[in-house]
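Margin note from the TA: students keep mixing up input and output lines. Inputs are the sequences; the output is the structure of the whole complex. Example:
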Amino acid sequence: MRQTAGTSARQMRRATASLLLHMMVLGLAAAALAPFAWLICAAFKSQADLFAYPFLPWHDLRRLTLENFRVLFTREPFAAWLINSIFLASTTTVLVVTLSSLGGFALAKYRFRGRGVLIWVMLGTMLLPGVVLLPGSYLLMYTIGWVNSYLALVVPSAVSVFGMFLFMQAMRAVPDELLQAGRIDGCSELRLWWEVALPIVRPMVGAFTLLTFLGSWNSYLWPQIILQNEAKYTLPIGLANMVAVPEYSSDYGVLMAGTLLSVLPVMVLFFALQRDFIAGLSSGAMKG
Amino acid sequence: MKRQRSWWQLQARAAPYLFVLPFVLLFCAFQLYPLGRSLVISFYDTAGPRATRFVGLENYRYLLGDKLFWGALANTLYYAIAFLAVQIPASLGLALLLNSRKLKWRGFFRFAFFSTHLVGHVFVAVLFAALLSPRQGPVNELLSAILGRQVEIMWLTTPSLAMPAVLLAAWWLSIGYGMIYFLAALQAVDQSLYEAAEVDGAGRWAKFRHVTLPGIKPVLTFLIVVGMIGALQLFELPYVLFGGPGPNSRGVTVVMYLYLAGFELGNLGYASAVGWLLFVIIMGISIMQVRMMRMTRED
């Protein structure tokens, strides 16, 4: 009798602890997500309502409006910025992933002249902060006439020392016997890369692809230096410049609509691929 | 037949060189060459991309005597230290909560906390400019509700609040990100070590101190060193949040100083000198951190 009372008390305590844990995590998650909720609401509110209601004017939802989005697409070339961003981020990502996986494959699976030197030089540049390159890169772009050209955004960004090392590490897991078997079957070295090595490191490719896309999508400093006319802007440049316009700096609704549309695509992308992504990211971290 | 075989051997022999060739070419052209050029022009006085005059170490000498630069460095260090001092424990605490086996919907929570990291610095700055607006801004309204009286904090125009405002945005952005790494590390800690510790009569704190902490130390070191390197290069967040240097130049960071000198005033040589000095600072701090983490090794 006493024993059952003891176990039920323990169960009670356990249930309370579990409830407390869930409430705490839920509360924290709500705090982390609250700015998103506010952002979504703000994008659909008129300027008069923006700060008048913490989130939505629940008593009269007809007050919500699409005006902010209309302003964004009619008075600003927002559609062009969106397309530019999608184009630049995709192109850069495809280039980076291709070059890094190809190079990483060579570094991991072949012994060739210059390999050691290359690895050392790459390691050396990894410690340099990216901004050291800025003045020299700008001068180079000026010399070859790439200022205000997308070439300046895509071509130099195709180089990723980090990506090379990541793929080099991952490709070590590709068994040599498998490659040898492929060679006996008459596979060219290029096909070995594409059909044997890449599928084996797939989770990492997914994570790296997403991270590269995200980095390019959000990049500001270099495009801000290179791009000079509005039609060529990307989302971060366009939006940051809108903040500086007095007309918008008081009208947050339009800015919030722009921010929402800038954040949404990557959110959807990551949400769709999150299982692959998080597995890949953590496997990279454990090795690092 | 013979021609085919020689082609076959050739492609096998040349393959590794061809595979690294595109990378090596671009790497030399767009990383090594600009790097060298940055070093060279740091010894020149420049006005725009054309006019240059050799001045030796004059840029560095001027830089070390410029009060604005020291202010920028102080702001940056303040930010970096405060950032890590909150982000690391908060990320670890969150990871410990989420690592509990009793927790349901773990996948959802993991994504919820991580999702803030997807928002680029520029977008976070635009969002927080609205959240922190002085009159009826949501952050001030929340504080008013908690304190029970109306507060109107001028977050973005008060000099002493400039970096705290940036920090709020930065923490929101990166606590969940750090959590992902800690969570992966926690899940890799050998469970039998906990059982062994329990047999030895270790309490919660002792288990954390002697099993968990050593187990996650590589990730901890990684997050501190890489987080520091990133924090020392802060730029977009204050630049967009304040639309420039901020109140009393209290939002100026080292990279913003570099950007203003090189690309708004057009002195690329001077900007290069700032970049190289930043490199030296980052190297020094990173080496120090790695040494310190080694010293705290458990015997």
